[in-house]
Design brief:
The protein has 301 residues and is of the alpha/beta class. It has 9 helices and 15 strands. It has 3 domains: 84 residues, Orthogonal Bundle (Arc Repressor Mutant, subunit A); 107 residues, D-Maltodextrin-Binding Protein, domain 2 (3-Layer(aba) Sandwich), CATH 3.40.190; 101 residues, D-Maltodextrin-Binding Protein, domain 2 (3-Layer(aba) Sandwich). α5 links the parallel β3 and β4.
Amino acid sequence: MIRLNMDRITAAEVFVEIVDRGSMAAAAQALEMSPAMVTRYLREMETWAGARLLHRTTRRLSLTPPGEQVLARCRAMLEVSAAMAVPGTDEADPVHGMLRVACAPSMAQTALARALPEFLRRHPRAAVDLRVDSRAVNLVEERIDLAIRITNDLDPNLIARRLADCASVICASPAYLAEHGTPATPSDLSTHNCLTYSYFGHSLWEFVDTRGEHLGVPVGGRLSANEAQALLCAAEHGAGIALQPRYAARDLIASGRLVALLPGYEPKSLGIHAVFQSNRQMRPVLRALVDFLVEWFARQQ
């Protein structure tokens, strides 16, 4: 019985690793097992479950409906196994395993690239696979454990924890302003070349003035992009006026390469959120990373 239970725990580890890594070959390498052994454990897991757990094609693996249920149970089993480790040994730390984390390029470069090394030093048995993409990825289809998103429009089907506020700034290069003039009010932006995001060919920039009144200004220009860093770089080189996260533009403004505009009007603030699928059966490594990011962002204020 003990041998059977240990085999099931190992099989659960193998199955979770296959799903997290996206292939049996990658799981075999991570677990330092032969591919044949990984295949054997997967077959045993499917035998115990009485169902096929994975769709296998030459290009990718995907979970079957029974596979999704078994995956949740395997993660729960491994949490219990980790919690039973003997205190005083390395196995007592339940924060272990691989996390797939998704975020936009600007967030990766200015925040997570600095935060994640500290998290990994605290938890030597944890690992992170950072997926950098401008689009909002589908957490379920792409097997993402955690997404960091800057938005006020959250998916009601997902769980979100607010990490920080994201203040924005309107900015342009000194060269652009010397040639085209400096806007004094948000309505002046209609006569300027504004660098916008590629959403339906137009953009609405929202502000709060010193009296607390809200106003929205339709803007447009000859250059748009789906990635904030590209627009920031274009603004630095005189392409137009940009709306940027303050954390991304801070150094360029401090060095004089960009100028902050419209001091009497504050662009609408957004929230920085950690987004994940469920609080139920949340792995300790995921909970630890979310808690750490709350702490890390608080220190940056």
